[in-house]
Amino acid sequence: MRIIYSEDHKFRDAKTELHGGELVKPFEGPFRAEWILAALQENGFSDIVAPEAHGLSVAGKLHDAGYLEFLETIWERWTAAGFTSEAIPISLPVRRSYHARPPKNIDGLLGYYANSVETSITDGTYRAAVAANDCAISAADHITAGNRHVFALCRPPGHHAGIDLFGGYCFLNNAAIAAQRLIDHGAAKVAILDVDFHHGNGTQDITYERDDIFFASLHGDPDDAFPYFWGHAEETGKGRGEGFNANFPLPRNTPWNAYRAALESAMKRIADFGAEALVVSLGVDTFEKDPISFFRLTTPDFQRMGAVLAASDLPIVTVMEGGYGVTEIGHNVANVLLGMEDG
Ligand code: OKP
Ligand code: ZN
């Protein structure tokens, strides 16, 4: 299986994350990609290539133009405003912000484009996010060229990035970008399956009114898990997208057997949809030892997961999302890919 990886992920290296009322070292850092890359190499994956530079022409079809300009210019404008530490939003439009619009003040703009406030923006964040976008596009192109499976080792992750929203460690929605690229190159119907522990609220936002992208997500019940305000089973799509969104909220301590049942249901929905290709938003934060999540998958379970995905017989672009804290994240990712190759 080919792996698309850019060293430029290293430019996303925030010093702070707001967690439990404190600014802590972020759970999402460069070490994650290093651990994953090392485990892939240990497991014999040697076809590892850098992406082409694609720019934001695909992202521009999914994200708001003002939002993309904000991402590109925030750091310069933040420091020009006299701030010396990392950019953290303060005031967000919420219920009854009836006339919310992008303010001219950079501090206000930061809140306008945020869906959560743990994710500090730093010098280099934009450069790394664009490189992750490049990985997703190059991976999609590898599928269009006729290959069956490809893995985009994206960092920073993307599935919480909405049309005009960043947060949850995400800035550009790499999975949606991969799906759009497949469509731009001839696919009529693409499914995105999100197996990260957290609901893919950004991907749902981007695809909610579309009938050419089916979105399914398995995640911690929003009553009990970040991002809290999306991911309910009642969210089924809107307008022509009605019926093309499927959420599978799952309870604390969900083990593989219960997870697999939900996964099979999601795969059945994707087959019924008639997907021509599958984009998998792969988070391995469903692991039993993940520091910020609460499912109970084991390292061997990830290989079983890969086999279930490959049983669809669809071409698969796997895009890296979350998975934190422990070096096992690398082996868990490798196991998903090994399960796909065997399956
Ligand atoms: C990103 B991805 C722990 C609470 C959760 C944000 C989690 C973002 C997860 N500080 N905070 O979906 O893995
Ligand atoms: Zn996650």
TrEMBL record:
Keywords in alphabetical order: Hydrolase, Metal-binding, Zinc
InterPro entries per record: HDACs, His_deacetylse_dom, His_deacetylse_dom_sf, Ureohydrolase_dom_sf
Domain of life: Bacteria
Protein name as it appears in the record: Acetylpolyamine aminohydrolase
Pfam families in the cross-refs: Hist_deacetyl
Record PANTHER family: HISTONE DEACETYLASE 8, HISTONE DEACETYLASE HDAC1-RELATED
Domain Histone deacetylase as annotated: residue spans: 29-337
CDD domains: HDAC_classII_APAH (cd10001)
Entry similarity comment: Belongs to the histone deacetylase family.
Cofactor(s) of this protein: Zn(2+)
One of the record's GO molecular function terms: metal ion binding
Gene: aphA
One GO-annotated biological process of the protein: epigenetic regulation of gene expression
Annotated source species: Martelella mediterranea DSM 17316
